[in-house]
Amino acid sequence: MINLEINGKKITANEGDTILRASLNNDIYIPNLCDDKRLRPYGGCRLCIVEVEGQARLMAACSSPAVDGMVIQTETPKLKKYRQTIIELLLVHHPLECPECDKAGECNLQDLAYEYGKPESRFIRSRKTTKSDIRGPLIELTSRRCILCGKCVRICSDHQGRGAIGLIGRGFPTVVQPAFGETLECDYCGQCLDVCPTGAILSKPYKFTARSWFLDEQDSICPFCGVGCTLTLGIREGKILRARGEQGKGVNDGNLCGRGRFGIDYIYSKKRLTTPLIKKGEEFVTASWEEALAHVAKSLTNIIKKYGPAAVGAIGSPRCTNEDNFALNKFIREVVGSDNIESSAAFGYEKVQKVMTAAFGTNNHPVNLESPLGKEIIFAVESDLSVTHPIFGLKILEATREGSRLITADSRETKLTRHSADWLKLMDGTSVALLNGIMHVITEDDLFNKETVTGIANFDTFLASLKEYTPEKTAELTGVPAAKIIETAKALAAAKSRLITLSLSLSENTKGSAAIKAAANLVNLLGEGAESLQIPAEYSNTYGSYNSGLRPDSNKPGKGLKEMLYDSESFLKAIYIMGEDPVINFPNSTAVTEKLKSLDFIVVQDIFLTATAKMADVVFPASSWGEKSGTFTNASSIDQEVLKLVDPTGQSVSDWMILKNLSLTMGSDLGIKKLADIQHELKSYHEKQKAPEGVKAFLTVHHGPAEEIDSRFPFKLVIRDILQHSGSMSTRSKSLDLVISEALLKLNTEDAERLAIRDSSHVKLSSKNGEIYLKAVISEDVPMGTVFVPSHFPYARINTLTQLTPEGDAVIAGVNIEHAGKSS
Amino acid sequence: MASKNNTDIKSLVIRVCVGTGGLAAGSQEVIDEFTKLLKKKGVRAEVLKKCVNKTGCRGFCAKDVLADVIVDGISHTYQLLTAENVARIVEEHIVGGEPVEQWLVGPEYHAFHDKQTKILLHECGHIDPEDINAYTEIGGYNGARKALTMKPENIIAQIKDSGLRGRGGAGFPTGLKWEFCRNADSDQKYIICNADEGDPGAFMDRSIIEGNPHSVIEGMIISGYAIGASFGYIYIRAEYPLAIERLKIALSEARSNGFLGKGIFNSDFDFELKIKEGAGAFICGEETALIASIEGKRGMPRSKPPFPAHKGLLGKPTVINNVETLATLPSIMTKGAKWFSSIGTEKSKGTKVFALTGKIKNTGLIEVPMGISLKEIIYDIGGGMEKKNRTLKAVQTGGPSGGCIPAANIDMPVDYESLAAAGSMMGSGGMVVMDDLTCMVDMSKFFLTFTANESCGKCVPCRVGTKRMLEILTRITEGKGKSSDIDLLLELGKDIKLASLCGLGQSAPNPVLSTLHYFRDEYEAHINEGICPAGVCKSLRRYTVSDEACKMCGKCKTVCPSDAVTWEKKQKAVISKEKCIKCGACYEACPFNAIL
Fold first, then answer.
1. Is there a contact between A722 and A257 (Cβ–Cβ < 8 Å)?
2. In this predicted model, what pLDDT tens digit does every residue of A506-530 receive, in sequence order?
3. What is the mean pLDDT of residues B342-348?
4. Which of residues B45 and A515 earns the better pLDDT score?
5. Which of A405, A700, B295, B366 is the 20 to 30 Å CA partner of B389?
6. With an 8 Å Cβ cutoff, are A148 and B458 in contact?
7. pTM of the entire structure?
8. Does the domain made of B132-341 have the CATH classification 3.30.1340.30?
9. Which CATH number fits domain B351-435: 3.40.225.10, 3.40.50.410, 3.10.20.600, 3.40.50.300?
10. Could you tell me the CA-to-CA distances from A788 to A16, A747, A784 in Å, in that order?
11. A82 to chain B: closest CA residue
């Protein structure tokens, strides 16, 4: 700590702080337009100039380090005069369009003009008049209002690692533009919107919807990925109009991705369910709540009577609150008396939990969002965290800027591969082989931690299992050159600190439990603890819902998703599905559909009439995020409150309340009257769940020929997330739909040529499970023999083609590609 | 005239100036012609191969093409040559033994050179820049060789003792800069040669590289070794194709001689150099912007500290030295710090190269000892005003960052401190001489147009401030100035200087402020009386004929393109205001300065 004096006030600051940072941290405001604590000092606007005793020159506070003993003045007549000149210079060309500019009321330039502006300018006013660039979706660039602080350019390139816009030209005519003045094409994270101090960059969806001073702003938690960012939501007249990030708030500290910023308008989709529906024959008819609840109560009671409670199952939701999920848990266990319950976490986080427990003997594995910082090596295995968990991805980028060495193993170029020191270009689905190959080198060369491995079970079996993964063999399996494998192994072993990170969810099919086991083995081999393996839970409340009882209890003979939906055994007669769309989201949807068809009774409560809901006998309309209160637990195990910000759509009701009402109809009250009752009970439930810690173990695992590629289905179908979407919920967002609205099949240029498939033409994609039609785009991104497609889009029904292994992993499927219209 | 036989010539060397200036004046044609005719004359081929050497700039650009014809060791220098002249020189001088007197250089050529002290430029124009042997034969690379036997600390001490200051403009002590970098702890350090010479009219660095590229490379080896850098960049503007070409040749020759690469000069010091071509932005001469440009980023300066000596290229300690600074190093190493510090003044040591231009007789590249008076430069070296009937008004130094020194101060010494005290600066070495036909407002406008265009746009005072200043200057030159404009220029200029981020903005108002200081009356005349005293600002011109001065020669009528002059023999001329298009032809043509 250092001591300095600002305006007569004695303050302390961290060594290395700039004068501006030290001053702002001590609540002394110095005017500035180009500073952002996430960015390197810039010194462009020159408003933060201060006087430092003993210094002849004025110093820019943003770019001058605070030195112990400094005596600083930030408000003197001399400084005021300079600031007036600077504001005057900016206002000569800045068009005073405040009456029709969305930024008015929260515009830094406007505020500073109010403070330092003079009614008369000494210069002849010549306003900039360039037209706004409205070509791109979501973001509008109005260069005439730009004061060239460069924050947008810097946040985009230096912080987001994107660099979609740049300063073009020099001197006064400089403009912020995409290269060559082309249409803006970027991550659409909208970070530039938040940093712009004027109205030069504005949100198109928010445009002209409200004056900023009429907005009621409230904070809530983002409904998309597991990071759990705090959104500051602007509400007017009962409608959420926008979301923005605010520094100092939440785990994201002001950062947001495009999903959180633009995607929340899915709650205003015209397709929201507004009333309960009961199926009469083939058609749904609207029903009253009483009618629908009575119908469900009666049908479920009959099934329980006839087949026993074990014939009823339930699926919970990572999109619903802890309270909703716990209510479902209580309903299925206490009212129905069944233990058949699980959620989509079965394809993601639940596997992570199980493997981690087996490998490290510990329970609950929240991620540490700050974990990348300060690590010598970060190794991202077949995962683009900057897509699945964008704000966690930013931490990885931040770490690389601060000197961490990022090594990525991926088949495609991603943001992480672009920022990595080393990119091991492996073939899809071969991360187990790669990790085993790396461990082969580490064990052969005696580079592992011999003290710690002796205390870990199964070491000898594990060691023997690595024998076959020689660098040459691994190179053959993965496509990564042997020398690279050796180099990576040595680097990992030599590093003083390391982080191995992956993502796992049902919308990826290139890795499953095996990959996590291999990664856990590597961590154990190097003598590190579980904290060196960071695998964030996928969705906003995956972590929370899993810990709210959405899994078969190990002491009871409960069944999970695999048994309920995929096994041929037909114990299940009725299913209660809350906030999930298995027909679309789960692998091998043909099997899922067949299974659902075979059931006597299906209840779905959701916010949309999903493909699964269409198969239901009764559909309950649920309130969405933003329409109900509750808590989400993010991937780092932080319980965060989500607020009811607006009224529910139509007759929709909170999920937990539907379950409470249904229980009452079935003659049991669940012990819940209000939300707080569930929260209270949930707390004691969590206490009880704390299991004793076990032992560490190596989990022998082999590279398996997971995919079934043959002459009939010669292409590997790889499913990965794309940045603009999270699960299928975000595809209902009108804003995100503007960026990307359909599942595009990415096909290698040479493959396309061979099959005579033109860019943007429609193709038929078939696997042994079924066939779908998609638009193909030709791209260098995908390797030969592989096609890539995201699974988010319900209409594309990608899961028609996918497979589920007996271990419950989604795997790369073999597919065939033909021109649409041609019959095979 | 006794005719000599060809075979009597034992040695024949012809040196033709092929700097950019020389090439532009047609030196390649002169070389070709010599080659052709000598072959025709049957002068032996083996002699011929050597006899037309390319040399670099010898500074006297006003007299290009210059060529030395050295017959058996006796040298004669020809000036203003063209290919047509060559036949007669071959015939009369080489074959006939009688130099062609009328084309030989006159006394001004000698005056031009005599007052100069050539350290850097000594070899330029005398050795072949495309042959490393030419450099090593005169002791080239001995400085580096010697340096490598010394402790780096001792080299730094020697440079500090010599008093050498950076020649790029700011005049920071070179040895001190090196010491900062030497003391910075890092696994990798860099040395960068700043050859991004951007001042309008300046060509010192270009000429040194074109004339003696090895001196720069040798300087970089010395500084690289001294600071502990094993890698260096030469950042040179792409607009200098000849300099780049010669550097490339020099680098490859140095490499094959073991002066670059692994274990140079058989020591254990590895040193490698790379050329990085700049894309022609003036701001990239600023060291942090230059670093950004090498890193592949937009060439914009950043705030200092950290200084490049601590965190420079790729975040590593870096020293950036100007071409001239680097080229001075070999001779300091071989001749010693004492020798160097004996030249110049107390605080400004050694020599400085200037690009002498403007309304002066002998324009060109000069090297003078620090402390020489402006008067000596202008009248002895420069040969005085270009036109006899014109008088000296001011000297502009330091380019767009510098200022004007009025004729009254012509006795002042040229060194860092004196120039700064006079409101100008040393800068990189531009020196523009102006006569009474130069309008100071217009001149300021010229420089400000340059800086406003070259401002990178990062900081507000420079980006917007220079634009507004330029607007004010423009309206003054158009006769639309307001009485408040002078105060506004002074205030705004001061604010820009104080609040700007980098040296460009901090010095951009200098041309305006210094002319306002010395020539405020000219600004006032433009604003208050609507006249441009020098007659330059077109909008303000009102040509009239002075009755007293007019000698009734009628020259003005003959040159007038718009028939605006009425004149009969033995009558004084009259200019019609209506017909006059203010082109100034009559003004230029009048031998008696009778047109006002």
1. no
2. 888 899 899 999 999 999 999 999 9
3. 92
4. A515
5. B366
6. yes
7. 0.90
8. no
9. 3.10.20.600
10. 46, 7, 11
11. B495
Is A297 within the bounds of a domain? yes
The number of folded domains in chain A is 5
Same domain for A449 and A381: yes
Chain A residues within 8 A of B464 when measuring between CB atoms? 89-90, 92-93, 172
| A123 contacts on B by Cβ (under 8 Å) | 468, 471
Instruction: Give A344→chain B minimum CA distance, Å.
Output: 45
Distance from CA of A453 to the nearest CA of B (A): 35
pLDDT, average across residues B525-551: 87
What distance lies between CA B287 and its chain's CA centroid?
19
The token pair that represents A437 in the structure block: 């190959």
Tell me, what amino acid is at B483? Answer: S
pLDDT tens across B356-372, in order? Answer: 999 998 888 899 999 99
CB pairs under 8 A between A and B: 99
String of DSSP letters for B319-361: EEEEHHHHHHHHHHHHH-HHHHHTSB-SSSBSEEEEEEEESBS
Residues of B in contact with A122 (CB under 8 A): 484, 488, 492
Interface contact flag, B492 A147, Cβ < 8 Å: no
The total of other beta-carbon atoms located within 10 Å of residue A193's CB is 24
Q: Which residues in chain B have Cβ-Cβ distances shorter than 8 Å to A58?
A: 498-499
Q: Which residue has the higher pLDDT, A725 or A153?
A: A153
Chain-chain contact of B461 with A85 (C-beta, under 8 angstroms): yes
Q: Is there a single domain that holds both residue A386 and residue A529? A: yes
Task: With beta carbons under 8 A apart, name residues in chain A contacting B471.
Answer: 123-124
Structure tokens of A123?
A: 């210069």
Q: Which domain holds residue A442?
A: 368-534
Residues of chain A found within 8 Å of residue B461, distances taken between Cβ atoms: 46, 85-86, 89
Q: Are A637 and A365 in contact (CB under 8 A)?
A: no
DSSP A128-158: --PPPB--SSSEEE-GGG-----HHHHIIII
The answer as to whether A606 is a domain residue is yes
pLDDT score, position B514? 95
Helices A471-478 and A482-494: angle between axes, nearest 10 degrees: 110
pLDDT in tens, B443-490: 999 999 999 999 999 999 999 999 999 999 999 999 999 999 999 999
Query: Are residues A522 and A428 located together in one domain of the fold?
Result: yes
Among A85, A90, A166, the residue with its CB nearest the CB of B495 is A85
Starting from the edge strand earliest in sequence, which strands make up the sheet with A283-286, in order? A283-286, A277-280, A618-621, A601-606, A574-578, A312-315, A341-342
- Please give the pLDDT value at position B592: 87
Task: Indicate whether A38 and A55 sit together in one domain.
Answer: yes
Closest residue to A82, CB basis, from B302, B484, B499: B499
Question: What would the pLDDT profile of B300-339 be if each residue is shown by its tens digit?
Answer: 999 988 999 999 999 999 999 999 999 999 999 999 999 9
Closest partner CB to A170 (pick from B303, B457, B460):
B457
Specify whether the CB–CB gap between B25 and B58 falls below 8 A. Answer: no
Residue B573 is given by DSSP the state -
Output the CATH code of domain B542-596: 3.30.70.20
Which architecture, in CATH terms, is B12-105?
3-Layer(aba) Sandwich (3.40)
Closest CB to B501: pick one of A46, A170, A172.
A46
Q: Which of A21, A46, A79, A80 is the best residue to mutate to test the B interface, defined by the most B CB atoms within 10 Å of its own CB?
A: A46
Q: What is the CATH number of domain B440-529?
A: 1.20.1440.230
What was the pLDDT predicted at B4? 46
Per mean pLDDT, which range of A23-37, B292-306, B579-593 is the poorest? B579-593
The average pLDDT across A109-117 equals 93
State mean pLDDT over B571-575: 87
Q: Are the C-beta atoms of B164 and B326 separated by less than 8 Å?
A: no
ipTM: 0.87
The CATH number of residue A255's host domain is 3.30.70.20
